[in-house]
Amino acid sequence: MSTTTKKYPGEAEEAHPEIFDIRAMPPQPAEKKPGQLPENMVRQFFEEGYVVVESFFKPEELEPSRAACEELVDDLANMLHKAGKIKNLYKEYGLFQRLTQIEKEFPGATVLAIKLSGRLPQAYRDLWSNPRLLNVVEQLLGPDIMANPVWTLRPKVPQDENTTVPWHQDAGYLDNRAYEVLQVVAWIPLLDANKENGCMEFAARGHLKGKVATHQCCWRDTWYIMLDEKEMEKSLDVDVKRDAKVIPVPYGGLVLFSNMIPHRSLPNVSNDIRWSLDLRFQRTGTDAGFNNLIEGIVMRTKENPNPTIDWEPLLKNNRHLVGIKAVSPEADDPFFDTTFQGPWMKKWEMVHTNRHTAKLT
Q1: Read out DSSP for 45-77?
Q2: pLDDT beyond 50 at 296
Q3: CA 310 to chain CA centroid, nearest Å
Q4: Which end of the chain is more exposed for a tag (fewer CB within 10 A), N or C?
Q5: pTM (2 d.p.)
């Protein structure tokens, strides 16, 4: 009788620490450019797996993204109201309360907002291609920079399980080719992010093994994969009590982190929605890891540091809906369906099923 343990597609013994630790730090640009970080902060990214940059963005660089979020919520409210799903448009509420009120009347509205966000408005594009942000990313990746198609707008509604994300490594959501690619994630809150409203928590230095630990799916009544703390200790030498760091980020700041570092977002127990953007970068020519569904787009090259960016691959594809189609080809994804699916669900052992997994084919 065989005692071989079943191997799931996401599992891999390979490790590439040199791609993610201090050995991956590129030569720093000879030219001084606006926004660049001091060398000790660049080193922290590679040594700790993350670095917080406070007071980076000017208000005028973030206000358009806030306005785009307001427009998204307004569109969602009008769609739900027109369809008879809600009776009130809640226009009297602002950006940090309105979606909460809609969610109370139509549970799952937050999921719909995430799906709707896949349209990538101009404000998010401007933030993603911000020259000062790219100058910092160049310090971490080198001069050839590509945007990864897996970007996310996160409206973290108070007391909402759908936006409380458990421990995971971002690479665990992508196909296995991403295990050999350093991706830099820029996490940008659109208000002061703190422990009360659900800021990020990192397992410092958990990226140094250069490998993806074994995840499972799915966490509670969500579509998220999860990484057990005992598995983190066994595979990544992480002691959560010692290494977990709660990372507040003020409005105007951001945290840059590696796709290999274990992290989670804490519950939002405040009265305000914690809006944030995840924007991802990697070296041009490396695999995006999105199952060949959407390719990355070139943001900057050594030969042409200020190219005209071709956003078309992301504009013509709502990446959330593309992911759903990949695992449920027959699904027409009616707009008011508040479930979520994606290729990551088939990578890992399914230890908990729910309404999201029920629609996998």
Answers
A1: HHHHSEEEE-S-S-HHHHHHHHHHHHHHHHHHH
A2: yes
A3: 22
A4: N
A5: 0.95
